[in-house]
Amino acid sequence: MTKQQDMSRRKFLTLLGGIPLAGIVVSSTSVFTQYLYPPESLRTPPKPMEVAVEGELKVGELKEFEYNDAPAVLVQVKEGEYKAFYRKCTHLGCVVIFNQEQKVFDCPCHGGKFDLNGNVLAGPPPAPLTQLAVKVDGGKIIVSERSA
């Protein structure tokens, strides 16, 4: 055997021994990351928030606001019926913009479109806008996260 063959065999065995070590490091990192970022089901939901009063919006009008440190919108879809959504596109999280002329939400990143009910009309978004729960209590319009 030549010295060159011994070196390549040594490198091969070193690499082969390093694979299990790399697996241990990756799996340990995964467990540690889960400890730092607990699952969604364990986080404390944000408190309900008053965002408008009855009569403030007309049918088809909307009001933008911040909820849970994220942009959101309240829409009166029918007389006395309100819907609220996070304004983050379900494709890549870009903030959608309301197109007043077409009465749709447009995603400026990849051309996604959503109707006033948050449903996907066009583009790559895989799901409707994330809806918030809306309750009218004593003339106040209150939003909160939907319970799972």
TrEMBL record:
GO terms for molecular function: 2 iron, 2 sulfur cluster binding; metal ion binding; monooxygenase activity; oxidoreductase activity, acting on paired donors, with incorporation or reduction of molecular oxygen. SUPFAM superfamilies: ISP domain. The keyword ATP-binding does not apply. It comes from the Bacteria. Keywords: 2Fe-2S, Disulfide bond, Iron, Iron-sulfur, Membrane, Metal-binding, Transmembrane, Transmembrane helix. Its cofactor is [2Fe-2S] cluster. GO terms for cellular component: membrane. Residues 49-143 form the Rieske domain. The chain crosses the membrane at residues 12-37. This is Cytochrome b6-f complex iron-sulfur subunit. InterPro entries: Rieske_2Fe-2S (IPR017941), Rieske_2Fe-2S_sf (IPR036922), Rieske_Fe-S_prot (IPR014349), Rieske_Fe-S_prot_C (IPR005805). Pfam families: Rieske.
